[in-house]
Amino acid sequence: MKETDAAAPTDLAVRDENGHLNADWIQAVETAVKANDAEHVQELAGDLHAADSGELIETLSREDRVALVQLLGEGFDYTALTEMDEPVRLQLLEDLPPDAVAQGIGELESDDAVFILEDMEQAEQDMILAELPSVESSQLRRALEYPEDTAGRLVQTDFIALPPFWTVGQVIDYLRSATDLPERFYEIYVVDPGFRLLGAVSLDKLLATKRSKKISKIMEETRHLVRVNEDQEAVARKFERYNLVSLAVTDDADRLVGIITVDDIVDVIQEEAEEDMMGLAGVGDEEISDSVFETARSRITWLVVNVFTALLAATVISMFENTIDVMVALAVLMPIVASMGGNSGTQTMAVTVRAIATQDLNKRNLWRVLRRELLVGLMNGIGLGILIGIIAATWFANPELGVVIATAVLLNTVCSALFGLLVPMTLNRLGVDPALASSVFVTMITDVVGFFSFLFLAAWWFGLPF
Amino acid sequence: MKETDAAAPTDLAVRDENGHLNADWIQAVETAVKANDAEHVQELAGDLHAADSGELIETLSREDRVALVQLLGEGFDYTALTEMDEPVRLQLLEDLPPDAVAQGIGELESDDAVFILEDMEQAEQDMILAELPSVESSQLRRALEYPEDTAGRLVQTDFIALPPFWTVGQVIDYLRSATDLPERFYEIYVVDPGFRLLGAVSLDKLLATKRSKKISKIMEETRHLVRVNEDQEAVARKFERYNLVSLAVTDDADRLVGIITVDDIVDVIQEEAEEDMMGLAGVGDEEISDSVFETARSRITWLVVNVFTALLAATVISMFENTIDVMVALAVLMPIVASMGGNSGTQTMAVTVRAIATQDLNKRNLWRVLRRELLVGLMNGIGLGILIGIIAATWFANPELGVVIATAVLLNTVCSALFGLLVPMTLNRLGVDPALASSVFVTMITDVVGFFSFLFLAAWWFGLPF
């Protein structure tokens, strides 16, 4: 029962109807934290889901974050650390006493513990692992040895594995009497004496089967199992494709190492699509809570690369200085040609990058897709060319200039379709992430082709010097 | 048992080690389909997961798709229709005999049936609904009445709901004897006589509890329930935040309407992140299997909008025709200034659009984020300005020109940070999807500011006419 107290409300909703954290509630928590009122803090924030407390912590100031965790004491669930941005998490881990952190992490599920540990400095990581019981710390050490972004890092080692000769009744009796069951589970795994995976029984199947039946009779052979070294994205693709909720992970000797559950995969899918989007926009792995310096440094790399592609475009223009000197209208119009190519190239590129990521583009349909993109480029190039041609001809009272710019727009649009597809495909074949590097090349090509085709055609048509 | 036959291999793996469909297997299916060999087709593709058969169908020609489905007959699971691109699905539905389609759809889970029906023409939809048993067709009609992209459209009406006074033993006995259980379930729902939702019991909890206990004692009150009219994205956010596997959906009178499972949410999350990315690149809801005409039409809208923003930039340049006439170097260098602003504006914009979508950006942190973006813009603007200034000064042997371009780059970079943040924020407040419309405005602003600041500063500094 919660007490009602006008001066210190404790019955505030955690989230408003839009799903945002309730500002009044945050305010109340903040006030209680600043007043060092442990009891009130616990009333307000003692029974939160990790996602809510993670987000709450993100909104507080650095001092208040530490104070909140300390005021909550035992009531603070370290799972919340997996639900906040990396910079906030690292800072908080630094600010909290190491033994409290070690204890908190020790209580987590193994996949959450790995998620937190993997971003820490080696020294801090070792310190925390040293404080844990040896079984747990060796499990975590093993998980941390798997390469980043592989299935091994997502593995949860808390699962139920039983021999095939058990009956359904035995399993149920065991589950009723066991005291150390995983917090949540969806399947029971069946293993041989060497811990090699034989199959899995989903709980609905288990519940709907008579007690006398052996679990080997109702288990499903795991068609979609995953190896520890498999890439996260490939694992995500399996969950998505086969509508899975959990999946067994085995080592090279077919031994069951642990399981991966869909909640971790939801995060992987989210991240993956986000990475493609950010990559295309020239932003790396960035969080809204990163520091100014960190952000500036990570973004400028991309911008500097773009300085050189812009310089290349400028060099093309400088080849036609004399042409422009005679006909300044060209300088006015030339960015239109480049920008049209850039925009249509970006369209093709985005579709291609996404299709590569979702495995919708492959050798079988490459030619069909290429033909389609070229035809789309041709159709849109003709449409845009005519529109821009008419505008330019009218503006400068020069129909021939209209024809020249229309032709250049058409050329550049078709080129942009071709390279918008081929650049990401080629990068992918070369093992370079197409989301990261495609934009630079495509923009470079559409700029160069745009400026060159327009200025060259104009110089040739009007017989201008260059 | 599968027969082995060298001439007609049936033991080919469906997927290769990269997770792509096995090309040899596709070839074998194609050959069998063309040979009209029903038995062999069934051996090869009769027992596929819907995801695999959906993808297989996508790779075949239009005629072979229909032939495959007909050769598989009863063995074809219409769930596969939910696993293929919309254009392929619509074409196939058109090509198949309507009564076969109606029968196939009648066997689907309600959420899958809705997914297929919602994209069909009204007339076809009615025809199929008319062929279904009245209970099913009225359920589907009701689901189709919910607005698109709401929870109601994702609802699965196949679930288990029981009264609170049942014991665990009764529940288990019921599950063992029932013949019409849902294909897969993760929770049992507890309802009152008016079908109002009281709570849910997860299967792991049910299995770990003694037979004599009442389910009302072990059920969890559903903290995270969803209304039929709630937006899909809000639902997805709940699954993601609270690591859910299934969620009850209620109507306005708190009655249990159905459930949503995580596999549908995985698709929503995927789509949502993809939409943001495609939106920023100026591509709408497009599939790689859309027709040329369809694609061209959907893309050109965006390109035409961009013609007018490019014209605005051209108008700015034309104000300085006389300036350029005197100093052609300006025409060579001006695209660099515009392009730097465009690139850094895109970075800020992508981060902002994503932060809005994931609810990481709100009133509380807006000022902090704005300050951060401006500082990042300032730092990178200074860095880029110096770099480009030195290059320009050297290239044209004109140090003053270096100072002018450096200043313009700095100005445009800071502006781009400001508007890269404010444009999506403002659009979002106005109820316009920031992913769709931000690019146009940000590019327009960075182009105009880029060209104007550089040409104006140059004209003023060197005392040129304009």
From TrEMBL, chains A, B:
Keywords: CBS domain, Cell membrane, Magnesium, Membrane, Metal-binding, Transmembrane, Transmembrane helix, Transport. It is a multi-pass membrane protein. Its main location: membrane. SUPFAM superfamilies: CBS-domain pair (SSF54631), MgtE membrane domain-like (SSF161093), MgtE N-terminal domain-like (SSF158791). Belongs to the SLC41A transporter family. Acts as a magnesium transporter. This is Magnesium transporter MgtE. It comes from Pseudovibrio exalbescens.
